[in-house]
């Protein structure tokens, strides 16, 4: 929360006489109404049902039947996270012919409890949230009937209720507020009909404390019985006092939605509170809330209920009459016109391109025989959607907006129920114009260190600056002889679809003593991974891989080691710099081929290459080397690089090279071929002596004349270790043999990763 927001909120509370000490630990918004995302994931969705104005006890009505349908068939078919009843639970008339609320009546509350049939429906205080309305408050200043008979009142002893729902992707907060008059007035034939609705200081204090307590919520929803402002209908009452204070709390804590009943009508709008009326001061809610009037379940010929879905923090709503299946609601993309006028801060646009996700919830007594299909802008062609196996109520498809003009477009989903009945839902979405840039680079936004030691952080992978994030292996647990070293690390990158998509990473593995390398893979769900490449050798190289261009949303990049052999416990590491994904938006040309390739031998194990860069649209260059099996990739460098050092070669050996440039559209033609022969390897001098220190024998290995920066030491034909080499001086290494060595040991020293080796020296015991 900004300091100005905190200051204004505290001033408001002070004017209400509310002690500020109970809010001294405010941590920030209780939700972020601007966090809706158009994501690919299909498992970040939940939904709930809201009903209002059941009016149990109305003369000549079937209101108990309506409520019974909701808690029996409706609950079983829709399987909501919870159900909300937003006031006017009872009618307070006990069926009198004039319809005047002259109660309260215990008989109505008894009928209400009997209809809920809690023993058989599974309704309880954890999934059914009923708050009072004005009909529940007439002539009952203490709300004793509500507290003794409602689900929440009898469970909590309060007239307001706060609860959360926690998922793997976040926590969501819900708050039912008591807007009904608490003065015990009887019904009146004259305005405001005994319904002087409002929120007093104690009620506002509870609301503020609960919003502060749940400041970690992704989104926050508030439910009340009355509208927050005058509706323009002379028969409607509203929150006469406390409305501006409630709005201030909503604005301060980022509440996303206010749902209410009372009017028996349905409407949706964005509410910013920019009105002034009789008893309230002007106020604002920025950026606004979804302000939804839920039509009544009782006293209504249509007998409505509302389904609200939250999909990647995008809010969708649909109102339906009871008893009619199927019910369908599009959850992604969210409706641009949900709550006109459209507010871009609370919604998102659709990128211009293929692979856009489409998701819809379909509810029917037998979804196994249902079908769902969609079309765009009234097209005569309907495209099939597929049921999500992990969620039988959710259907999904993929649609292409690349041929659409920038602006509003309509998506319709048509659902066919188990009895052949067809229902549709539609949303208006804003499709972006075609990108004016050829590509966009997208960088790591988060990481999950699964196993291994991490130095620095993912933020160090954003630029090519020589500052690395390094992941180092750890040793497994268990029986010592079966332990091994391993690592696993995951990065997340938000990406958008395009015509091409390429992954890049500048990587430098450590020199492994046990043959370990590092495998990179990608996923869109963090469950199923597709391999991209495996590192080769300890050289600093740029690696790349082409990805499906339709990926849109969170991309997961995982690195794992390739050797987990028992006993191999050397701690290898991978240094990562400039890790990113490039999305291309146009089908441009492949780059021009490089020319003037020259290969020059600089030692017995290294050849340097140089070439001319003739293109301005390459992503990088691929260097290939000819060996006995054909052309193989020797390395990759980035854009504008015109040199490469090929190391680890054999002495006195001829090598032939060629180079090509590449981008998201493909590879160029090859450059000319160039051949160079490595220098003859120097004769490495090796001497091995044995010594005894404190009862233990040591093989003292000494060598000289190696020309590489490091050497491999072999013992009995197997690599013992790789150590640094001083080209101009003498070098040594000690190999402990224990107290009772026996037999013979052979040693040999080679320039690292080459065949330029010393003679073999044997020591015997």
Q: Helix coverage percent of residues?
A: 10-25%
State the total count of DSSP E strands.
Answer: 47
- Spatial strand sequence of the major β-sheet: 4-5-6-7-9-8
The CATH first-level class of the largest domain comes to: Alpha Beta
Uncertain spans: 1-28, 275-280
Report the radius of gyration as a whole number of Å.
36 Å
- Give the DSSP E fraction (strand runs of 2 or more residues): 35-45%
- Helix count, DSSP H or I runs of 4 or more residues: 8
Largest sheet: 6 strands, mixed
Q: Give the CATH topology of the largest domain.
A: Transcription Regulator spoIIAA
Q: Give the distance, in angstroms, between the N- and C-terminal Cα atoms.
A: 77 Å
Domain module count: 5
CATH architecture of the largest domain: 2-Layer Sandwich
Shape: elongated
Structural class: mainly beta
CATH superfamily of the largest domain: GpdQ, beta-strand dimerisation domain
Mean pLDDT: 88
Keywords: Signal
InterPro entries: Calcineurin-like_PHP, FN3_dom, FN3_sf, Ig-like_fold, Metallo-depent_PP-like
Protein name: Fibronectin type-III domain-containing protein
Pfam family, one: fn3
